[in-house]
Amino acid sequence: xxxxxxxxxxxxxxxxxxxxxxxxxxxxxxxxxxxxxxxxxxxxxxxxxxxxxxxxxxxxxxxxxxxxxxxxxxxxxxxxxxxxxxxxxxxxxxxxxxxxxxxxxxxxxxxxxxxxxxxxxxxxxxxxxxxx
Length: 132
Hints:
By secondary structure, the chain is an alpha+beta fold. 31% of the residues lie in helices and 32% in strands. It is built from 3 helices and 5 strands. It has helices at residues 2-24, 41-49, 58-66, and strands at 29-40, 71-75, 80-84, 97-105, 110-120. A hairpin with a 4-residue loop joins strand 2 (71-75) and strand 3 (80-84).
């Protein structure tokens, strides 16, 4: 009887411990500070597929996002694009080089921005060849 009681208490303790840790740290999510450009997915994806992880034309990105394109963070150090889960947090910085701190979901390749600091005002231009 004592063994059963002790075993029950241990199982209950481990269960509560596991549930508490599962709530405080969701799977595939972690806090990170990342530097990169805020852009639209269309222009950024095309460039990233070609191996270019730099800023895009700010005016073009603003128009594309206003037309419904997803907002992304181009992270050159990580060589990846992260979809911004809460675009309102970065709406004023489309095209800018920023430093964001937030939660990154590796599985869905998204970032939820908690803080954003502008580092450089966006002035990057497309890699499109000049018209002759």
